[in-house]
Design a protein that fits this description.
This protein is 46% helix and 21% strand. The chain has helices spanning 11-21, 33-40, 59-68, 86-95, 107-132, 142-154, 169-175, 178-194, 220-234, 263-278, and strands at 3-7, 26-30, 47-50, 77-81, 99-102, 159-166, 200-206, 209-214, 237-239, 245-247, 250-257, 285-287. Helix 2 (33-40) packs parallel to helix 3 (59-68). It has two domains: 3-132, Response regulator (Rossmann fold); 142-287, Alpha-Beta Plaits. A five-stranded parallel β-sheet has the order 2-1-3-4-5, sandwiched between helices. By secondary structure, it is an alpha/beta fold. It is built from ten helices and twelve strands.
Length: 291
Amino acid sequence: MKHILLVDDNTTNLKMAGQVLQPYYQVSMAKSGKQALAFLKKSIPDLILLDLLMPEMDGYQTMEEIKLNPATANIPIIFLTADKQRESEIKTLQLGALDFITKPFEEEVMLSRIEKVLMMDEMRRGLFEEADKDSSTGLYNYEYVKKTMSSHVAGNKGGALILFSIENEIEMREKASAKEYSAYLDYLHEYFNSSSYGNSMACKISDGEYMIALTDHVDETELSSILMNLVDYLSREINLEDGNKLATSVKAGSALICSVGSFDEYLAKADKAFYHVKNTDFLTFHIYRDR
């Protein structure tokens, strides 16, 4: 079921729109632009219905913040507002909104427009992913992750870069059955797709080596927990064709993203931490520190 976020400072408006949408969609609600932005740090809906006239942070400002964040920039937005001025509609469309519905809304018209926008977004994402994802792994291409994260870092956003390797992936591929090796890759991709630690992108760098880019702010304690979970999750025993078992060896290095620096600088820091781990027998992960 598609997930829609309703943003409106009027409780009655939220309830009315929610009653229309809930038989067809999962619905979440926010009573201000700030609440909406806080919600988007934890969950990414399929579409946002956004009020225009709100105190403190209006619909324009809220949308600008959404579009500035690479993790939320592509969420389709429809304005649902009592503002019927043609100039307002034009401005919202110029900012990137996909439709503009005036209040009081007609139920069938609103549902029809939402369905149309969601269908258009599915088509767009299909074309987008075909261009920016590796067809063999389903992961993002390195160049796409670099481009997206370079923009994210330039916007003084927090996050982290994680480099990790499955040290014996080549041995696994050579000695395990095709079915067993494929099952492990499915397990690996399931981890990438779960996004259990927030907004992220993953790409393959080379055989057995991968990068995860986090766009949510994390501190060192949270990042340590993420790295520990990554290593634990991917450390498994694989059945080999000769009847023996192979224990996967996972190593990871990471760098926190702060407000100063470039993507290449943070990647170099993550690589230093990664190199340090790969050259020790007792470490499974390490976070780069400027000391």
